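In the previous chapter we treated chains in isolation. Here, by contrast, the input contains three separate entities that must be folded as one system, with a combined length of 707 residues.
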Amino acid sequence: MDYFLVLLLAGLGVTLVGGGLIASRLFAPRNPGGVKNEAYECGEETIGSSWVHFNVGYYLFALIFLIFDVEAAFLFPWAVVFRDLGGVAFLEVGIFILVLIVGLIYAWRKGVLEWV
Amino acid sequence: MIPTTHVLILSAALFSIGVLGVMLRRNVIVIFMSIELMLNAVNLSFVGFAREMDSMTGVIFIFFIIVVAAAEAVVGLSIILSIYRNRQTLNVDEYNLLKW
Amino acid sequence: MTFVTISDFIPIVPELILVLTALLVLLVDLVGTQTGYKMTSPLLAIGGLCVAVFAEIQLFGGNRVGFFDTIVADQYSILFEIIYMVTGIITITISWHYIAENNMNFREYYVLMLFSIVGMMLMTSSLDLLMIFIGLEIMSISSYIMVGMMRRVVTANEAALKYLLLGAFSTGFLLYGISLIYGATGSTQLPAIIEHLQQAGAFENPLVGFGLALLIIGVGFKVAIVPFHMWTPDVYTGAPTPVAAFMSAAVKAAGFAILIRIFLTGIPHAERWDNMMWVIAILTMTVGNVMALRQNNIKRMLAYSSIAHAGYVMVAVVVGSEAAITSIIYYSFAYALMGMGAFGVLSIRSNGKTIETYEDLAGYAHAGPTEQVAAVLMSTFMLSLLGLPLTAGFIGKFQIFYAALDEGWFWLTVIAAMNSVISLFYYLRVIVFMYMKERIGAQQEKESQTSVSSLFAITGLLATAAGIVYLGIFPNDFVQLAQLSVTAISF
């Protein structure tokens, strides 16, 4: 009796999944090729193949970008309540940005921003 | 409004997916992404708790998690790049010079 | 609206000094010429560390708090911070030689080490889980880079990658633990959390148990207790030797510092906690010692031995009494010196080659004047790691065992003692190889050169050995300091 339930469940599972697949085969309109095979790039049409290798030099820019990207996460909430916080907070954010700028200068002097 | 329990369940599920990803996947980049997923699951649970208790501490915590995750990503990707240059592979099973 | 005032910065003056020193070293590197940096950076870094130690001593006893009670400069944190900085100074003395010998011309090395120490200091002096997390990450991220500095060396890459992946993985657990604790108690401030957990029935909330367990996993990875120790041998072997020394000493001490701060300052311990922790302690000791026996690579042996020593400290964590916490502080300092010393000797090149296996050590004691001194130092460190009387290792173990017996942990103490007997074999093996084996192969020894940098390293190691012997013969001063610092944190 118990095993009958298992069998029933298994049968039901196979029917539902298989039935779904078969049904979509039978009824769904198929229209392969064309625009569907193109890479999606934020709605823009791609120019050339999207399987090109990026120059590894980009990677240093990416790493530096990441830092300044996250910096924005800190600046945004501050900017929202800028008027309420006033001068001291402005000074603190200034110090924060200054530290990051020093980092950027360091990277610059180290030749990270040179294109090789 | 979504109950806090649901948020927590989702966060626990994401965290588990992250942990499983770290343990099961063999590509370093995917492992790294799984770790980021774990951190983001934590962020979600912080949001859930913070909203439940109406406290800002949790939200502030998230900012720092995001920053630390970014710093870790920068260092991590650099290390992955340098090991790829030397070994020409991203499969963790092939990084086997140090054992026992 | 409350703002930070100048007085808030007083407790973190030592940290600020170190940050400024680090920035100065960076700046010198930027404007300096190629020839000057080799000596200026390490000397600047040592100078900054000395000034910061001086500042800590001025702060001692002040119990200053700042930043809305999230940072506290009590005796406990100051003592640990001085331990980190002393290990930092010793690391720099041995690094200079290693960097010169291995052409590891990455000038950010000292900067990263200073930042790593700043991270540890913030982590130790913080009373808020948020600050603890940030400090932990400053420390960890700096050390990921330090491990992988020699990026052309494949083993270093691999070590850095393993350390990074497992470190970040453990950070995930730590954070999830913090978030659950936050959810259960409504705060990330330790005093508030402890107060909340001391109420009756606080542990009925399942979040609390889960959260604490996840926190232990997170911290356990950093101090390498046994189920979470797998990265240690690989990372210590692949990392540059001074970095391995730094990690085994300072990073571990920092891990134990927050372990004490979080778990032993008033969170009530259920029966389950005790059961879990003593199993971990026994596993850590035994796995560390047994695996150390099988190693042929000395750095790997030292890595496993550092796991074993973490196991002895875990015994004290299980006991958790005031005497036990005192012994943890003492042992952290003692182990920092012994571990640094042992790795430090390995970082000195002998006849133009690095020592890796036991065979490389054969006849080491007779190879030249530098090696003769180094062999005596290595023997001191080994005997101290072993726990021979008159060394710091003996007093440390004695205190831990005594504290454990005092609280009735008889079998745990017996197992710990048996473990120290096992460790006899592999520590003595080092001494036997250095003094009693002949150097294998042809004896075409060129006149071994004693460079200035190796003299610098030897000086640092001599100071370390002197410290070990001093702590072993006159332990009372430091023990009193440790007791004083325990009274600062026990509620």
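Helices of chain B lie at 4-24, 28-53, 57-87. The radius of gyration of chain B is 17 Å. Compare these points with the single-chain example from earlier in the chapter.
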